[in-house]
Design goal:
Helix 5 packs antiparallel against helix 6. Strands 1-2 form a two-stranded antiparallel sheet. The protein has 7 helices and 2 strands. The chain is mostly helical. 74% of the residues lie in helices and 5% in strands. The longest helix has 62 residues.
Amino acid sequence: MTRVLLLAALALACVASPSLAAEVASVGDKAVILPWGDWLVALAVSLREPILTILIPIIAGYAIQAIRKVYPWAALFLSQRRVEMMLEAAVGYGLNAVNGAAKGKTLSVNVAVPVIAKGTQYVIDTAPPAVIKAAGGADGIAARIFRKLDLDDSASEAAVLVPAQEKIAAGTVSADELRDADRMVRG
């Protein structure tokens, strides 16, 4: 249906061009000017509003369909990007909040557990619930922080991640402690 309308509009535009505005015919010895080009232009102008009234909703419908197809991917990309930004902030906060931890330094088990716990708690206290949910909740955040840290050879999931998750679940890291540590870090 749309193709037919577009082809009809194209044909009308070609026929109604200014170079065809007048046709000369001869009757006997006299030239007679038939203004059929003017008639076509007048017809095109009079049909402009009905054609636009029909075409604009069709074009808008196709645009909405395209947006609906792309939106989930865009939303997924944006939420994943937000999760990654949140995790970078969590790792930075955890490293700054724990004595003996520093960026680029290999962490031992006894330092990595509080880094993960404090970083996870920081995210839970500051990030929007949708981002926390997209990251997999407290356990998912802790697991992602665990993967981002540079740990020594004795560190394993059982030795670092599980105790950190237990510490988070027990609520041993309070929001007040986080705020105090944050104030100390910022100076």
